[in-house]
Amino acid sequence: MWSGVDIAVPVPSDRLPGISMAGFRQRVPAPVDIAMVAHPSVTLLIDLSGDDGLVYDTQGRSGHGSVVIGMAPGELRVTGLVGECLQIRLQPGVAAAVLGSSAGVSGSVESLAAVWGRDAGRIEERLRTARSWDERFAMAADVVRRRIGDGLQVDPEAAHIWRRTVASGGRVRVDGLADEVGWSRKRLWARFRAQLGVTPKRAAQLVRFDHAAHLLAAGLPPADVAAESGYVDQPHLHRDVKAFTGLTPTAVAAAPWLAIDDVAWPDSWRAGRPVRSGAPSSGER
């Protein structure tokens, strides 16, 4: 499905810490139907297609247009007639500042208008009328930068624990992390959840699932993926995949959203992400 899609990414020097962006343009606007796959970041999906754009459906609730997707939204499908779309991925500590709170960071799916109010429409219109993807990336970076400056600040300890969780592929012990930052387990659990929207255990599960999902997409058998990702066995992997996506490991392996990650997110902060061959060519950069 990506053969008719141009993908644009910012140049490395323009990227902000904890933030990734990619632009998507269908050469000929066409209907899409994609099962979104959970990953360890909050997604701002900004619809630049006009009135007949994105429609999203999660747990029987539907919405239209630009949307904020939490880290683990469950079963979520994006459909509609899409021409252009800007996707912004925010690490959870950054997301808490950009969104104004940790609410929605974990699992909710909300319209961008519900989160940013009237600013959402103004930002969409500016992005829609920009002359190039580079101009759009610059606009979006400015919006995000200003919101980070005015938003919530995450404890350095919580940020350190998140980085350690990601670097380990989700294979960390909560007690050990608490010792690293000099917090009690109770304080770690409370502060991490309050500021990042998930418990340390849930964060580790999501990072581990993300690592496994990309190994599945790379073509590894589920049994090998389970062993390499730190699951007890293949049924354990199957249960986590089902819990995060509503899909089987086989369906996740074929998920179209994963098929473009090597192009859309070339400098992903994921630990141990496999590199696949045969990725689609990128568009404007």
Which percent bin holds the helix content? 40-55%
Mass-distribution shape: globular
Q: So, the CATH homologous superfamily of the largest domain?
A: Jelly Rolls
The percent range for strand residues is 15-25%
Query: How many whole angstroms does the radius of gyration measure?
Result: 18 Å
SSE order: EEEEEEEHEHHHHHHHHHHH
Characterize the largest beta sheet: strand count, sense, and whether it forms a barrel.
Answer: 8 strands, antiparallel
InterPro entries: AraC_XylS_family_regulators, Homeodomain-like_sf, HTH_AraC
Keywords: DNA-binding, Transcription, Transcription regulation
Organism: Streptomyces monticola
Pfam families: HTH_18
Description:
This protein has helices at residues 92-99, 112-116, 118-129, 133-150, 156-167, 174-181, 185-196, 200-217, 222-229, 234-245, 249-253, 261-264; strands at residues 5-8, 19-35, 42-47, 54-58, 61-64, 67-69, 76-90, 109-111. The protein has 285 residues and is an alpha+beta fold. It has two domains: 2-150, Jelly Rolls, CATH 2.60.120; 156-264, Homeodomain-like (Arc Repressor Mutant, subunit A, Orthogonal Bundle), CATH 1.10.10.60. Strands 1, 2, 3, 4, 5, 6, 7 and 8 form an eight-stranded antiparallel sheet that branches. Strand 4 (54-58) and strand 5 (61-64) form a beta hairpin. The longest helix is centred in the middle third of the chain and has 18 residues, at 133-150.
